[in-house]
Amino acid sequence: MRILPGLIDPHVHFRTPGQTHKEDFITGTKAAIAGGFTFVIDMPNNKSPIINYKLLVEKKKIAAKQILCDVGFHFGSLGDNLDEFEKVQGKVLGLKLYLNQTTGGFIIDKKNLEKIFKAWPYGKPILVHAEEDVIDLVISVCQKTKKKTHICHVSSREELEKIIKAKGKGLSITCGVTPHHLFLTEKDVRKLKSFGMMKPPVYDGFKKFVWKNLKHIDCIESDHAPYTVEEKESENFPFGVPNLETTLGLLLTAHSGGLISIKDIVRLCHDGPAKIFGIKQDARIEVDESEEWIVKGNDLQTKCKWSPYEGWKLKGKVKKVYIRNKLVFDNGKFLVKPSFARVLSS
Questions:
Q1: Is 291 domain-assigned?
Q2: Which residue range is the domain that position 75 belongs to?
Q3: How many domains is the chain built from?
Q4: Phi and psi dihedrals of 298, rounded to 5?
Q5: Mean pLDDT of residues grouped by 10 in the chain (346 residues)?
Q6: Residue 341 placed within a domain
Q7: Considering the entire predicted model, what is its pTM?
Q8: Partners of residue 173 on adjacent β-strands
Q9: CATH assignment of the domain containing 180
Q10: Closest of 240, 241, 260 to residue 250, by C-alpha
């Protein structure tokens, strides 16, 4: 049995409030714990985006009654709520901006990017969904404003090369990668059809490049984005996949194959996100590195009950989870009730 620090996922979508048929804070945090994550940060692109203090407070109140693991939140902006930034200081862990198409169409006008960066007074980072066509703009604004910038779910070689170059110049920039960009192939996506469609998409060339340059990645972020089976089978299917319960299993399987060290798993799933977002937590997990298991959607805690890794054999299973020295999960059983955990901003 190996003991690891409780993992941190800085990028999840728990769909609450507004879309609880996909996920809620109970099922989402159960999925997190089952996957070894003891702290997650929820994104602001809800049905009603979290762009003002009132909506943030309402969301936190709901979470406080439901969560089984610790949760934090990111704030959102389209550039028309700059007066709200001061109000949420000390209450969120970052500002999330969308420059490319994503769920809900919560996309900012690129002309507003520098204005938003300059207005963000908080020491926490600005997270950006920025693909190849806008990465130059984001790096330029980061350089001008000297604000901490985190590029979410890097997905192309060109994008990562430019981030590496920016880091080399001393810019305050970090980046994350998702499990699906590390493990899925274009062939997998074709086979999965709509269940393998996410934004940004999977490219085989990037997969090879990112594994060779893993030292330049600062964290792994699941981008856990659950949708119902009915939604994914619809004609106008949404983009996104659930990830929380399989991320560590995929990484431990890669470790057993010599592809990644335990040290790097801890760096990417704990040390990195803790440093980027200023998180301090008292949590640990116990994993059985030798236990093999088959991914089955119906066995997962996530409300959507499916996985892009359906049928995959993984090696490495979370057995016990402790938060503040309290045993909260033991061999598949949850030992605490909703509201046990805390909503944190540091």
A1: yes
A2: 2-334
A3: 1
A4: -65, -20
A5: 98 98 99 99 96 98 98 96 96 92 64 95 91 90 97 96 98 98 97 96 94 98 98 96 99 98 99 97 98 98 99 99 99 98 90
A6: no
A7: 0.96
A8: 149
A9: 3.20.20.140
A10: 260
